[in-house]
Amino acid sequence: MSRKSFRSMIFLVLIALAILAITINVYDLKINFSGLFGKDKIDDYASKYICVLDRENGQIEYEKNADSRAYPASLTKIMTAIVALEHIDDLSAVAPIDVATYKEMVANNASMAGFYGKERVTYRDLLYGTILTSGGEACNSLAIHAAGSVENFVKLMNDKAAELELKNSHFTSPEGLHHKEQYSSAYDLAKLLDYALENGHFKAIFTKGTFKTTATADHPQGIILESTVLSKLAGMPQGDTEIIGGKSGTTPEAGQCWATLGVKNGREYICIVMGTPLNDISNPDMKQMDDTLRLYDRID
């Protein structure tokens, strides 16, 4: 072999070795990045605000803008329900639907449980109507019967927020219709829900799939109320997580919001997703549900 040919061969070998070294380094880099930012680490969630909380130890499993203020929409009703429960002695007592706020909710196209004005329902009916079907007439009637007026009740809501040190929360109504001064954060709502779930009545309501209300003159057979969260999850693959309760909320300003309670490996987790873009309010794409399922899946 000539000296020239030998030098050419050595040059080609060196190039080959350099390419191999670069390939190995890139491969190692990809492995390292996948370990750090693998499929369960990359933030490609549609929701703008997220908080996943381990109820057993209070650890945050995942967060995204968790302390940022956001519109809570009907997740507000988590606060409404727990405040009402702490001011009600007998859930079986009659608490008729308030006519003025009923008309107001209808005029504002709020979500409704299906009760009529003056219908003689019970506090229990109102609570299930507030959480399961997000009824505007239900939560406002709760507020009036529990505190004498909506204004008094909203003060109780903000007092509770201060007591729980919800530093990025302020409430202006029990039902959560959009108002620029009504806001919360994913972390605050996770903390609030964790507190509320310590109340046995609240947890029973929050984790109920369906509930039949008391028979009344207006509804002799009662009304079947259905969870707006659990009904959407029926038949959906959830892996090794069981989502056992939830509350939904949607307005054009707030986007799509979900607060859920899931059980995985015998532990309870809270998942709050907020600000998921709303493509069509009459036919939503349910990206908040997709995010929720993937967030539970990422928990070890």
TrEMBL record:
Keywords associated with the record: Cell shape, Cell wall biogenesis/degradation, Hydrolase, Peptidoglycan synthesis, Signal
Domain Peptidase S11 D-alanyl-D-alanine carboxypeptidase A N-terminal: 44-276
GO MF: hydrolase activity
Gene3D superfamilies listed in its UniProt record: DD-peptidase/beta-lactamase superfamily
Statement: the UniProt record of this protein carries the keyword Cell wall biogenesis/degradation: yes
InterPro entries given in the database record: Beta-lactam/transpept-like (IPR012338), Peptidase_S11 (IPR018044), Peptidase_S11_N (IPR001967)
One Pfam family here: Peptidase_S11
Homology family: Belongs to the peptidase S11 family.
Protein name: Serine hydrolase
